[in-house]
Sequence to fold (429 residues):
Amino acid sequence: MHTYPSFMHGSGIIKIFLFISAISLLFDWYVFSGLKTLTTGWVSQRKRNVVVWGYLFMAVGITILLIIGLGSFSTANGMRPYHEWVLSLFLTFLITKLIFIVVLFLGDIGRFFIGLFNLVRGKNKKQVFPGRRKFVSQVAVLVAAVPFTSFFYAMLKGKYDYRVHKTTLYFDDLPEAFNGFTITQLSDIHSGSFDSTEGMQKGIDLAKAQKSDLFVFTGDLVNNAAFEIEPYLERFASIKAPYGQFSILGNHDYGDYIHWNSQQEKEANLDTLKQHHKTLGYHLLLDENVTIEKGGQKISLIGVQNWGRGFIQAGDLNKALMGVPNDAFKILLSHDPTHWEDHVRYNPANIHLTLSGHTHGAQFGVETAGFRWSPVKYKYLDWAGLANYKDRYLYVNRGFGFLAFSGRLGIWPEITVIELRKKTAGTTT
Fold:
C-alpha cells in the first residue's frame, strides 16, 4: 500500500505557500514602518531610503520569486537548488521579520496603554498616544539580527559541516567474531539539493576515513528523480568496506512528490534509480536479507523498502525476515523510525539493531550536553541518535544532505559509526 500526505502534492503545497506569502507581505508593511522610525533623524536621506526601500525591495522581491517558482514543486524536476535557495531566503526573512515584529509590537502595546491612561486622565494633548520610540526599533533590529545571521551561516556553511557520531553498543548474544565490528551509516543524501561539489566531497572523505567493516545507506538517495545522483555516482561509489556496501530506499526515492507523464515513466525512474545503486556498488535490499560472515560466524543484515507512518508503506518486514534463523543476530535497515516504533521494537523476531534516517533532525535545533530540542520532536518520538527498548536499539541518522531549506543550523549533517561489542560481566551500555 502506498500512502503519503496529500499536502506534498502541487496544489496543496502551493495553497499553503500562497497563504504564507500573503502573511509575509503584511509583515513587510509593519517592518517597513519600524524601519522608518529607526531612520528618523538620519542626516542623509539617501541612506534612509537605501535602508527602508532597500529592505522592502528585497523582502517583496524574494516573496515574488517564491510565488513564481511554486509551480516547480510538483514538476518533473521538482525543487532544484535555485528554488531551495529562494525558499531558504524567504524563510530567513520571514523568521527575521517575525522576531522584529514581536519586539516592535511589544513597544506598540506599551504606547497603546500609555495612550489609554492619558485618555482616562483626560489629558488634553494633541497627541494622546505617544509616538514610537526609536530605541524600540533599534532593539528590534539587534534581536532580529541573531536569526538573520544564524540562518545565513546555516545556508553558507552549516549544511556541509559534517560531524561523525560514534556509538558503541553491547549485546549478550553478539557472535564473538563480530566483537569490535564497525558500521558506517549514511542516510538522506538528497543529491538533488547539492550546490557545492567541494562541500559535499568533505562528507564523503570523512565517511571513507572511518574505515569501517561495513557500509550502509538508509534511503533517500535523491529528492525525486534518478538523474539527480548521476553527477555524483563516481564520488559516492568510492566509499568501500571490507564486508560490503548495502542500501535501502527512502520515501523520496519512489518519485511520489512530483508529476510524471505516465505511470510507466515513474516506474522507469525507479528502475533507473535501482540501477544507480548497483553502479554505486550498493547491494539494494528490497524486503530481503543477507548473511554477513566473519571468522566462521554470522549475523543477518535485513533491509526493507520504505514504511513510514503517514508516508509510503511499501516495506514488508515479514518477507524481509524469511529464512533468517530465530536466534540470529539481526541488524535492520529501515528508512523511517516510525517503522521501528510501530512494527520492530515489539516484533517476536527480536531485531537487535535498526538503522534509520528520514527526519533530518529538521535541519534545525539545539544539541548540547543534557539538552536536545528540534521542532521535529513534535512529529517524531525518535528523531535523532539512539533509542532503546529492552535492548532493542534504534539509531536515527541526522542525514547527510538537506531538503527544501538549503541549510542546517544546530543539527549538523552526520556520518554515523556504530561499533558492536560483546557484553561481558559488569559491562553497561
Remarks:
- Residues 39 and 47 are 9 Å apart (CA to CA).
